[in-house]
Amino acid sequence: MERLPIAPTSKRVKLLQETGERVTHACSPCLDGLPCRVGQVGEGVIEIGYGPVTDAVRELSLTCVPSTIHTLTVTKSATDGGTVSGGAISCGTTCSTVLPGGDQVTLTATPTAGYRFAGWSGACTGTGECTVTMNSDKTVAATFIEQVTLRVVLLQQGHRTMAMVASPEPSLSPDPCTTTGSGTQRSCTATYDVGTQVTLTASTLGFSVNWLNGPCTDTNVTSCTLTLDSDIDLAVQVAG
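Given the sequence above, the corresponding structure tokens read:
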């Protein structure tokens, strides 16, 4: 009977259709339960039998037991937005794997800096961990959304105070975003999904507002609407 070379890092092992093939291998947990082929037509999973130890090496009996094999595929909405990991999936780089029918895999999504994880679709929903039962081929999609920062600097003129609010949420931080005294300025920020349209509205006790830079450059108006395609800095002053 032909002997089958098996590398310690093997992910697929071809076995003869006969059972009981004897090999020696130093990493039996690496193989137990992994997919294998039965001849040219069937699929299965490896079962390992343990024999005696000879010269500090345990003899193993590898049997390819027929079993249904399914494919798990992971996709991401943004290549650099984050990683998905769990079981043999490290996506990243490894975004698909084959598993025996009935196996379960739990996937975790981790956003990279400057992105947030918005949720799963396909075989999972929500934003927590994703547990997939492999009773058929499954596809799971992870959505990562780029984040951008809006920064507004309020410049106070004399004793004319100003407060700024942003819509939609989140609120500008610190909240409330207001000037605090004569000749002072206040820097306020908020983080949004890229592409969000934001309206800034200033309260000045009846005075108009000058928007000094950025996409808002109108004078004597108290509000400005802008689309956040990237980080944006604005400066605003009460009109004299």
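Confidence is low (pLDDT under 50) at residues 1-28. Try to locate this feature in the token string yourself.
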